[in-house]
Amino acid sequence: MQMLIDKENNSKDKIIKPDFSTKTGREFLAFYLQTKFKQILSYDKKTERPIFKEINPNFISKFSRRLIENPNKKFLIGVTGESASGKTTICKQIKKTSTDLDFPLEFLSIDNYFNDISDLIAKYGTFDALRDNGYDVDSPESFQLDLLKEDLTKLSNGENIKAPEYLINGTGVSVPNSIPISAEKFILVEGMAAMYKDIKDLFDVKIYIDIDPKIQKKWFMERASKRNQSEENALKHWDYVGDAAEKYIRPSKSEADIIINGASSLDYFSQIIEFIHTATNCFIS
């Protein structure tokens, strides 16, 4: 990928920013981006550990149509996948790289839209005890989906928001209007609820992070250890997230525009963002 980046940097054929107020200008941009995306896919197929596992055949034409017909709206990119699939790590890497390159991308974690369950945790003593008594943390009813839908609609229309913050200290507290989120040109929205009903249709691009189950379990147990969970409790929660994934997450895989390998190199993800930034000659803003 570095070779493609260097080639773009050294190219004498830098394009001039099209006039996006005209349909012709937007059609040119759509065609150009299609060409560059196909170039990325062609390169990716030859790598030892490709990022792209599957692309919906209608994705490129749908993306182009969206770009041409609704140029003023922000691009919402929904990213979902099972627990410990790598989705949060990948999205944070993409956000970091975008920030370093001054690429117009914002990141929003749907985990912050969990309901406030502090009263329930106080009643049962711990989150684990609450879960063991039947609380389904991954169900659509466990999220503030109406607020999420409202916030995503605002971002799509160019309005900044303040997202809630769900505290990960075991208290189950959700702090409203806590995290400022800017309505950048591209907004990366990550979480298992990204493909839930009434939310998934808000996204211009839907991405599913796929992972080998053996790698997933290894990452899950390592994360549990870092959080000082006992192996017994971690394995119990592993069984829970597997059941939840079967009900709420895996069915959405068939609806994704892009299926990505969660075990691909983070540096490779960064290189792809750098290539897109370089190839567009900074005219995406």
Automatic annotation (TrEMBL):
SUPFAM superfamilies per record: P-loop containing nucleoside triphosphate hydrolases (SSF52540)
Phosphoribulokinase/uridine kinase domain span: 76-262
GO MF, one example: ATP binding
Family annotation (Pfam families): PRK (PF00485)
PANTHER family associated with the record: URIDINE KINASE
Name the record gives this protein: Phosphoribulokinase/uridine kinase domain-containing protein
Source organism phylogeny: Bacteria, Bacillati, Bacillota, Clostridia, Eubacteriales
